[in-house]
Amino acid sequence: MVEPIHLPQLLHAPGQSDVVLVQEWFADLQSLTPVQGQVKVVHHGNFLQVDGTAETIVTLTCDRCLQSYNYRLATETSELIWLSEVTESDALQGIVTEDLDLEDLVETLPPDGYFLPDDWLYQQLCLELPQRQLCDEQCPGIEIEHPQSESASPLDYRWASLADLKQQLERGHS
């Protein structure tokens, strides 16, 4: 388990930074291999700069054919995190001492709190999961074999109810 970083102690670390190596299984991420990577946290007074890289292999289900496939999940990202409950108007009045874009500072932590490297890395990996999960760009989807005659039953039992309904409708219109 990766230890949380106590932010006041980070101020006293060499270079006001810490590098955490990660090689562990994340309980909420169903992966075939442990997550491997690192997180570097640098304290800049009123914000943290967090840089991280990680990778693992997860099993996904194809949206088209419903088959499982392995996917290399990787992230290489950076984020700035506020260390106070500073409002945007306070930031505009000069509390932010460096040239920062306020839109880059979305997350906040209390200055005397903890930073959780493994939780942050888990969130970054989740953001990298593909929205469209396809085993292959050319995946044809679920292949349905049509019966040779109308009296033959469909190969996939899930279509049986639809076939019965279709036959009832055809008889009703005859």
Q: Strand pairing plus helix content: what structural class?
A: alpha+beta
Shape: elongated
Alpha carbon gap, first and last residue? 70 Å
What kind of sheet is the major sheet?
5 strands, mixed
What is the gist of this entry?
The protein has helices at 7-10, 88-95, 117-128, 160-172, and strands at residues 5-6, 17-24, 35-43, 47-61, 68-82, 105-108, 114-115. By secondary structure, the chain is α+β, with helices and mostly antiparallel strands.
Please give a structural write-up.
This protein is 21% helix and 32% strand. The chain has 174 residues and is α+β, with helices and mostly antiparallel strands. The protein has two domains: 5-128, no CATH class; 146-174, no CATH class. Strand 4 and strand 5 form a beta hairpin. The termini are far apart.
Any chance you could write out the topology, listing elements then pairs?
Blueprint: E1 5-6, H1 7-10, E2 17-24, E3 35-43, E4 47-61, E5 68-82, H2 88-95, E6 105-108, E7 114-115, H3 117-128, H4 160-172
Parallel strand pairs: 5-6
Antiparallel strand pairs: 1-7, 2-3, 3-4, 4-5
Structure keywords:
174 residues; 4 helices; five-stranded mixed sheet; two-stranded antiparallel ribbon
